[in-house]
Amino acid sequence: MEQPYSAWADWLSKFHTWPELIQALWLVSVPLTFIGATWLLMRGLRDLIPALSRRRWRGHLIYGVYQDPQGRWMVYWHGRQPQEVDWTNPPPELIGRGQVVQGVFRRPEG
């Protein structure tokens, strides 16, 4: 009795006759393709789910430090205008438990 045609069996029989370099490329490219497709799917879901969510973010930025286009370091507090950092007398929020040494933040010892 003759076996029915199988594309998988045909491809596998040809795979064994290919050079080892081509076989290695197939063995690497197939898993990478699946990993890439999974990554794209998860990235799409990550972007789509919040857009479909009925809950909206209602928080406010409380405090932030950023550098403006002129290169100045600015401090933002919620409800206030951004202020340039005074490196001679920095705000205690920037120091934390450490200390400022010549305009560079330094962590506490110990």
How would you describe the overall organization of this protein?
With 110 residues, the chain is α+β, with helices and mostly antiparallel strands. The protein folds into 2 domains: 7-52; 63-106, no CATH class. It contains 3 helices and 5 strands; from the N terminus they run ααβββαββ. It has helices spanning 7-15, 20-52, 92-95; strands at 63-67, 73-77, 83-84, 99-101, 104-106. A 3-stranded antiparallel beta sheet has the order 1-2-3, with no helix packed on it. A two-stranded antiparallel sheet has the order 4-5. Strand 4 (99-101) and strand 5 form a beta hairpin. It is elongated.
Write a short abstract of this structure.
The protein has 110 residues and is α+β, with helices and mostly antiparallel strands.
Keyword list:
110 residues; alpha+beta; 2 domains; three-stranded antiparallel beta sheet; two-stranded antiparallel sheet; 42% helix; elongated
